[in-house]
Amino acid sequence: MKSIARALILSTALAVALPAMALEIKGAKFGDTAQVANQPLQLNGAGVRVKIIVDVYAAGLYLSKKEKNAAAAIAQPGAKSVQIVLLRELTGEDFADAMIKGFKKNASDAELAKYQGRLDELKNLMMTFGSVKKGTTINMNLIPGAGMRVLVDGAQKGRDIAGDDFYAAILKIWLGNDPVDSDLKHALLGN
Fold it and tell me: Which distant-in-sequence residues (6+ apart) come within 8 Å of 107 by Cβ?
């Protein structure tokens, strides 16, 4: 009886000591939480971007508090993060072109004019990625007051792209009225 109790206590202690892995999708791992700009975030949802029949990437959305409404998630104050894990090899150019296309589908002409310089900056930054291998993790983090910080496998690429408003517009690629993948939108919102 004592050995059963000890085993139960030991297994409980190990479960508490190990970091929780919230979700694994097609081999891409998304933790329950993340830290951005010293702010704790929680996984809101995660899913797969499918183009025709090809799995392109898995993505997870991290927010300060869970939110099922797209507009409220976009407007939520504070740090945010979109974590993307490539499920196939891409070039930085492919990735940038897809981002710009998704952005344009969810922006008005006025927004395109307002953000064109920052879109160009983002495209130039992504072009520096070169060939991006399957399994690479790309984080697009909102650092409040500084803007969007892009990390590839944990290393910052380029400089921050200014504007919390620009990050909100970027989120519409996945959460806007015409998202790149409606199933992914629902998954990111935990629906």
Answer: 115, 169, 172
